[in-house]
Write a structure and sequence with these properties.
Elements (H helix, E strand, L loop, with lengths): L2 E6 L10 H10 L2 E6 L4 H13 L4 E5 L11 H11 L4 E10 L7 H18 L3 E6 L2 H11 L6 E3 L6 H9 L3 E4 L12 H4 L8 E3 L25 H11 L4 H16 L4
Parallel strand pairs: 1-2, 2-3, 3-4, 4-5, 5-6, 6-7, 7-8
Helix pairs in contact: 2-3, 4-5, 8-9
């Protein structure tokens, strides 16, 4: 059984002391490939460096998270585009809107999102999308640019059926994390995930964030790892009433198609 973690923040400094061991633990449970998220120009550089050091296993995204939208100046955008042309970069993002935290002004978030969608269209790579408490603006901007974009994934999906259906109507994939393992915040996802076509469903940990709440025994550390992806997949398969093996095969094939991953 092979699994692909399509969203892991492996460049995060919490992995600096044991990154090799983290990768080994992931490989030991069947996580054979990972897409390392770029959330700023700096973390994009680090993600690319990791991908170059582990060809065929790690890949990178190139983007600026809405939290950092205020940092995306025209000069930084030009640098990001140069980075995005690297063969190891398989998507543009993490980009989008986040009105929950509002760490960057909303007008700058919308500008940065539009710029990155234009860049994705220009270099013909899919988009790795973030949306929180901003669906109306997010979908309006995305619809404007969607005809020119080759594809994308609504990363770390936590919405309801209306958001799911809006994203599917735009031809997007949907990424499910350990949020579905949280009986408090993620209970609604148990029904929502049943409506995601198998060829559009991707799985991810978003490590070191979003540790699955239902892990037994409870881990001593709250740092999530890609080695927990099989647990997320097992829980997700259960709610979809399908086998883990089938979900693994279909999500892995979908990830390889979207991101054009090589082995």
């Amino acid at each position: 059984m092979e699994l692909i973690d399509i969203g892991v923040n492996l460049a995060h400094d919490s992995f600096d002391t044991d990154r090799a061991a983290v990768m080994q633990r992931a490989a030991a449970v069947g996580v054979t490939q990972m897409v390392v998220t770029g959330a700023s120009v700096d973390s994009t550089r680090k993600a690319i460096d990791l991908a170059l050091a582990h060809p065929g296993v790690l890949f990178a995204t190139a983007g600026v998270h809405p939290h950092h939208a205020a940092d995306l100046t025209p000069a930084a955008l030009a640098e990001l585009e140069t980075l995005a042309l690297a063969p190891s970069v398989v998507a543009i993002g993490e980009c989008g809107l986040d009105y929950f935290r509002d760490f960057s002004p909303r007008d700058l978030q919308r500008r940065a999102f539009g710029w990155q969608l234009e860049m994705a269209a220009k270099i013909a790579k899919p988009v790795f999308l973030h949306q929180r408490d901003s669906h109306e603006d997010f979908i309006a901007i995305l619809r404007e640019h969607r005809p020119n974009i080759v594809g994308g994934v609504a990363h770390c999906f936590t919405g309801g059926a209306p958001e799911r259906d809006a994203y599917l109507a735009l031809g997007l994939h949907i990424g499910i994390t350990g949020w579905i393992c949280d009986e408090r915040r993620g209970a609604h996802l148990r029904e929502v995930v049943k409506g995601i076509p198998a060829d559009r469903l991707l799985i991810e940990t978003d490590a070191p964030y979003l540790m699955p709440r239902d892990l037994k025994p409870a881990p001593k550390s709250r740092r999530n790892e890609p080695a927990n992806l099989p647990h997320v997949a097992r829980v997700l398969a259960g709610f979809r009433d399908e086998s883990l093996e089938l979900l693994a095969a279909q999500s892995t094939a979908a990830a390889r198609r979207l991101f054009e991953l090589t082995r």
